[in-house]
Amino acid sequence: MYAITIPEPGGPEVLAWAEVPDPVPAAGEVLVEVVASAVNRADLLQRQGFYDPPPGSSPYPGLECAGRIVALGPGVAGWAVGDEVCALLSGGGHAQRVAVPAGQLLPVPKGLSPIEAAALPEAVCTVWSNVFQVAHLRPGETLLVQGGASGIGTMAIQLGKAVGARVAVTAGSAAKLARCAELGADITIDYREQDFVAALREATDGAGADVILDIIGAKYLQRNVDALAVNGRLVIIGLQGGVKGEINLNTLLRKRAAVAATNLRGRPLGEKAAIVAAVREHVWPLVESGVVKPVIDRVLPMADAGAAHQVVEAGEQVGKVVLQA
Question: Are 63 and 236 in contact (CB under 8 A)?
Fold first, then answer.
């Protein structure tokens, strides 16, 4: 088969569409013939040499895919050869075939193509596990999504609105903010022109956000705490703005607030399977009814993964950039 390989760390130009050995499904795994995958920030970090796959995972990038099951490993039940599926991966999605733990499979939602479904697993599982399982967003609360036009951001907007929350977003252009508003965002903040803390306070009559989903990290740490409401919850899932920061603990104490930081890729198989099962139960009905939709900026050939990396690295897209095998 062919896969996107990383012969050496570097820019998008180092990515190579090369022939590699076919994966073999181990016990509890299935082999998926990939129709499409999507590009995530973790793929860019892996290409740059900063984010190796977890031990035992595929060495190729790609944290999600959609396609068809072509073989079952020993001990797999509930799935059959020919089933159309999408999957949460630890790596290997940017290839013609990938071995997937059965607990990380989801059926392609009714009414969606595999190309559309390829944009769902990583974003949905990330948002569900952090906004709802960690931060426990409730109806009527305010959710602030940093980077609302990203793949994760566009999904967080839709899921926040689906449960009856008020959703605020930050983004870096009027066009991106307009797209976020189309998806349901109630409060749109241009972080290049506005102080998001002041803008959010004004929009919420001084209350702030009950939950903040943050992809920036250190650069926004204290400002995110300042933006929290009393009993607010900040969940950090990205480090685009650095890894070391300071916070005023007195602010945190006075607000009786909480800060959590999580990732998805390195979690044990059982935890990932539990998240995927919850997504299938709670989110898949919303997708199949059209309440929640994949947001795809563009579809490119998988062999042109370097061009896709350039788009994501520059932050040009709204939603996901999908690679078609």
Answer: no
Closest C-alpha to 227, from 202, 193, 190, 261:
202
Rounded CA-CA distance 322/62 in Å is: 11
Pick the CATH number of 2-120+266-324 from 3.40.190.10, 3.90.180.10, 3.30.70.890, 3.40.50.1010: 3.90.180.10
What percent of the chain is helix, strand and coil (3-state, nearest 5)? 35, 25, 40
39: its two tokens: 């590009």
- Dihedral of the alpha carbons of 239, 243, 244, 245, in degrees to the nearest 10: 0
pLDDT value for 238:
92
What is the pLDDT of the chain when averaged over all its residues?
Answer: 97
Q: Which residue blocks in the chain are alpha helix, DSSP H?
A: 41-47, 114-117, 121-127, 151-162, 174-183, 196-203, 221-227, 249-255, 269-282, 284-288, 305-314
Find out if CATH 3.40.50.720 is the number for domain 134-261.
yes
Per-residue pLDDT tens for 263-296?
999 999 999 999 999 999 999 999 999 999 999 9
Percentage above 70 pLDDT, the chain: 100
Written as six digits, the tokens of 307 are: 């061009």
Radius of gyration of the chain (CA): 19
Q: Can you tell me the distance from the alpha carbon of 51 to that of 49, in angstroms, rounded to the nearest whole number?
A: 6
11 band by pLDDT with thresholds 50, 70 and 90: very high
Q: Smallest Cα–Cα separation from 9: which of 55, 58, 54, 43?
A: 43
Q: What is the pTM of this model?
A: 0.96
Check residue 316 and give its pLDDT: 92
Q: How high is the pLDDT of residue 221?
A: 95
**Lowest mean pLDDT across 9-18, 170-179, 240-249, 288-297:** 240-249
